[in-house]
Amino acid sequence: MPKMPLWKVPKNLAKVLEDGDGSWEDERWSPILLTVMSGTELNGREIPIAWQIEFDPSEDELETANARLEQMEIEPDGYGWGEHIRKDLGNTNPGLAKRLHLDDCETDTCVIWVESDEDCRMLLETTWNLIYKK
Predict the structure, then answer these.
(1) Does position 17 have pLDDT exceeding 80, yes or no?
(2) Has residue 46 got a pLDDT over 80?
(3) Are 105 and 80 in contact (CB under 8 A)?
(4) Three-state SS sequence of the chain
(5) 36, 54, 84, 110: most buried by Cβ count inside 10 Å?
(6) For 76-121, what is each residue's pLDDT tens digit?
């Protein structure tokens, strides 16, 4: 398993978001892209900072993980990955599993966002481990 990158977000995140047109990205987790966004709204409720992970399930790096999903009779597309991640988190952290926002998943992309950096860190680590476990 590749070594998981350290969790590092800018100390001055609010300023970075302001200077970056409301978003900051971290590609160190490739094939997962971490994006932090300001100015998000959900059902009329303002979300000060949204923390999102996104990846393309067809990436070569996910070939082994996709084969594991197929063995579990899960379609290895964005929707299947989203539900697989939610189910895995439901076993270890049911509260976080309920806080996941999966509405932006598509066939070609798994997109999951949460509303706190702590939740995002756990989501990112769980997803990394699901992709790379032996």
Answers:
(1) yes
(2) yes
(3) no
(4) CCCCCCCCCCCCHHHHHHHCCCEEEECCCCCCEEEEEEEEEECCEEEEEEEEEEECCCCHHHHHHHHHHHHCCCCCCHHHHHHHHHHHHHHHCHHHHHHCECCCCCCCCEEEEECCHHHHHHHHHHHHHHHHCC
(5) 110
(6) 999 999 999 999 999 999 999 999 999 899 999 999 999 999 999 9
Locate 95 and state its tokens. 């509260």
Give the percent of the chain with pLDDT over 70.
99
Q: Residue 134: which pLDDT band, with cuts at 50, 70 and 90?
A: low
Burial of 36 per CB tally in 10 Å (0-12, 13-18, 19+): buried
Q: How far is CA 77 from CA 42, 63, 74, 82, 109, in A?
A: 25, 12, 9, 9, 7
The number of angstroms, rounded, from the C-alpha of 91 to the middle of its chain's C-alpha atoms is 17
62 within 8 A of 132, measured Cβ to Cβ: no
